[in-house]
Design goal:
The complex is a heterodimer. Chain A has helices at about 15-25, 55-60, 65-75, 125, 140-150, 165-175, 195-200, 260-265, 305-315, 395-400; strands spanning about 1-10, 30-35, 50-55, 60-65, 80-85, 85-90, 95-100, 105-115, 120, 135-140, 155-160, 180-185, 210, 215-220, 225-230, 245, 250-255, 255-260, 290-295, 330-335, 335-340, 345, 350-355, 360-370, 375-385, 390-395, 405-410. Chain A is α/β, with parallel strands linked by helices. Chain A folds into three domains: about 1-120 and about 255-320, FAD/NAD(P)-binding domain, CATH 3.50.50; about 125-255, FAD/NAD(P)-binding domain, CATH 3.50.50.60; about 325-410, Immunoglobulin-like, CATH 2.60.40. The model of chain A has no long low-confidence stretch (mean pLDDT about 95). In chain A, helix 1 (about 15-25) packs parallel to helix 3 and helix 6 (about 165-175) packs parallel to helix 7. By secondary structure, chain B is an alpha+beta fold. Chain B is about 20% helix and about 35% strand. Chain B has two helices and ten strands. In chain B, the strands form three sheets. Chain B has a five-stranded mixed β-sheet with strand order 8-5-6-10-9. Classes of the chains: A alpha/beta, B alpha+beta. The interface of A and B includes residues 46 and 199 of A. Bound molecules: flavin-adenine dinucleotide and iron/sulfur cluster. Flavin-adenine dinucleotide binds near residues 16, 37, 141 and 263 of chain A.
Chain lengths: ~400, ~120
């Protein structure tokens, strides 16, 4: 067994982990190690070969691999240590990490731990699509890895269920490879991916988008042979007579992402039921002192730019420990708001909030109340669950001292 | 000129912009929330182009593929022709990010460049 002491241990080498590690180094940490179970660095981004990354951060639209190379080079420059092909299997309250690789077991004692394990895709079993269990059913991200990393074509006649961004991007990618993309089905009355992806990935290639539709049955003995699709009414019931059988050999699922937090839960870290990520305060510290969370294991971000920006704050906080008050106030999602991060505030100052709304709306007002007093008000021309809202607000000593809760509401 | 609705893809709002165009001339009707939308709608009406990303086969590399992109947006009607050229290409490892894989593809003045480093096996 190898025993090591480090200043900061980062779990996951995606953009969040790399950005946090570099920032920890820049803020004075001596020994920073990043642990990742993959053989490569960069998490999911090497397989996201389309462009659109880094626009906000650098002004240039880059592909996923180009964007992440920037951070990998940065990490090298800062002499950050990597343990790749190493799986973290446990974290305990004393900040000892147990990890395993080909050479055996590692015990790493860290001053601070940064969780940046990313997220994984929802599968058929999260949604319970009924029918047979043939081969040919993949999540969109697995198909993305097949095509973009391993040179494997998942199938020839493809139906995509769910209109998340990864699914839309895969529809285009498969079409470009000369495959037959029969359509994208979405149970909601609107696409869950961004409008720009509906345009450049579906409309450009005349790939049909069936809104209010879902798959009601999967057929196939060895390989997928067909799916039955049907229209859904506003009560989520199948519209009688709308069922249609579509012959296909491949079904891709794009239902959205789940933050990866098995390690966090086992360590006793509190999880927010809505975000699926740890409950954090304004420094992104979890309920276990010295353990921080960032990236998609904290919440599923829309763009990598915003994700990296907040991960840098986390890297800094993990080194420069702030003195916090014992008194905390709780931040709560109110009317039409799905969630708000941070969930806890225990220090005055400028605080960066991120949040999502429940449903699309236009000409609305975002208001924040500290107990009964309104402390923030802003008109929003439009809001969309697919677009995260980011805002900075000064939390004064007064609010912190007197208040119990901050509630965020969206008024129509 | 015909009226046409164009969804702007410059930012995540995705304004629906109404324009009049016959493919040669362009007139804005309304729907854009900012100026970038006008430029986008004009180029979309008169000369629609897209960035293209794909991958190219690698010989003796640590990975079988290297991701590539066009260094400039490609006219929409040439996308599948350019894809054919990308599929035909093969390159020896090592490959460097930014390396030109196909120069001046199909005489368009557009290069296909690597977006990843691929080490030799
Ligand atoms: C299939 C897919 C496609 C996506 N496409 C896009 C896109 O096109 N555009 C976009 O902006 N966003 C996309 N996303 C969102 C994307 O996840 C984020 O943009 C970004 O990559 C998240 O960064 P991260 O560092 O939080 O996580 P990741 O990049 O996922 O990195 C997490 C890393 O942690 C490692 N890890 C996890 N658990 C352990 C453990 N126990 N031990 C060791 N290592 C561990 C993983 O191996 C991984 O390398 C996509 C996500 C998925 C899943
Ligand atoms: S017109 Fe402006 S605001 Fe509207 S989508 Fe285009 S860039 Fe965004």
């Amino acid at each position: 067994m190898t025993n090591e002491n480090v200043d900061v241990a980062v779990i996951g080498s995606g953009p969040a982990g790399l950005a946090a590690a570099v920032s920890a180094k820049e803020n004075g940490a001596n020994y920073v190690v990043i642990i990742d179970r993959n053989s490569w660095k960069g998490g999911i981004l090497p397989q996201c070969i389309h462009d659109g990354f880094g626009l906000e951060e650098t002004g240039n639209s880059m592909t996923g691999p180009e964007y992440i190379q920037m951070y990998i080079d940065d990490a090298k420059k800062h002499n950050i240590d990597f343990l790749t092909e190493t799986m973290v299997i446990n974290i305990d309250k004393n900040k000892t990490i147990t990890a395993v690789n080909k050479n055996g077991i590692y015990k790493i004692n860290a001053e601070s731990i940064i969780l940046s394990m990313g997220c994984r895709e929802k599968t058929r079993w999260n949604i319970m699509v009924p029918g047979d269990r043939p081969s040919g059913i993949y999540t969109a991200g697995v198909a993305q890895a097949f095509i973009n990393l391993y040179n494997i074509i998942p199938g020839k006649n493809i139906v995509i269920l769910g209109s998340g961004d990864v699914g839309l991007i895969m529809a285009r990618r498969l079409k470009l490879e000369g495959l037959n993309v029969l359509g994208v089905l979405e149970i909601l009355p609107h696409a869950s991916g961004l409008p720009r992806n509906v345009v450049q990935c579906l409309d450009d290639y005349e790939i049909p988008l069936y809104l209010n539709h879902t798959v009601t049955h999967i057929d196939g003995r060895e390989r997928l042979e067909s799916v039955t699709i049907a229209q859904i009414d506003n009560k989520k019931n199948i519209v009688k007579g709308s069922e249609k059988k579509i012959k296909c050999d491949t079904l891709l699922l794009s239902f959205g992402l789940i933050p990866e937090n098995e390690l966090s839960k086992d360590a006793g870290i509190k999880i927010d039921n809505i975000t699926g990520g740890p409950v954090v305060d304004q420094t992104y510290e979890t309920n276990i002192p010295g353990i921080y969370a960032c990236g998609n294991c904290l919440q599923v971000y829309d763009t990598v730019d915003v994700l990296s920006k907040s991960a840098k704050l986390v890297g800094k906080n993990a080194v420069v420990k702030l003195i916090k008050n014992k008194k905390s106030i709780f931040v709560k999602p109110g009317k039409n708001i799905r969630y708000v991060i941070p969930q806890i505030i225990n220090k005055k100052g400028l605080i960066n909030f991120t949040m999502r709304v429940n449903k699309p709306a236009q000409n609305v007002t975002l208001k924040i109340k500290a107990d009964e007093k309104e402390i923030y008000k802003k008109k929003q021309r439009w809001v969309n669950p697919a677009n995260m809202i980011e805002l900075t607000l000064e939390i004064t000593h007064e609010i912190l001292k007197k208040g119990k809760t901050l509630v965020v509401n969206l008024h129509e | 000129m015909n009226e046409k609705e164009i969804t702007c893809i410059v930012c995540p709002i995705g304004c629906k912009i109404l324009v009049k165009t016959d493919g040669k001339e362009f007139e804005l009707v309304d729907g854009n929330k900012c100026k970038s939308g006008i430029d986008y709608a004009r180029s979309e009406a008169l000369d629609p182009r897209r960035m293209l990303a794909s991958s190219v086969l690698v010989k003796n590399g640590l990975w079988p593929l290297v991701s590539v992109k066009t260094n400039k947006p490609v006219p929409k009607d040439k996308i599948f022709k350019v894809m054919k050229e990308i599929k035909k290409a093969e390159i020896d490892a090592p490959v460097k990010l930014g390396q030109i894989i196909i120069k001046n593809v199909l005489n368009t003045g557009i290069d296909i460049i690597a977006t990843k480093n691929i080490e030799k096996l």
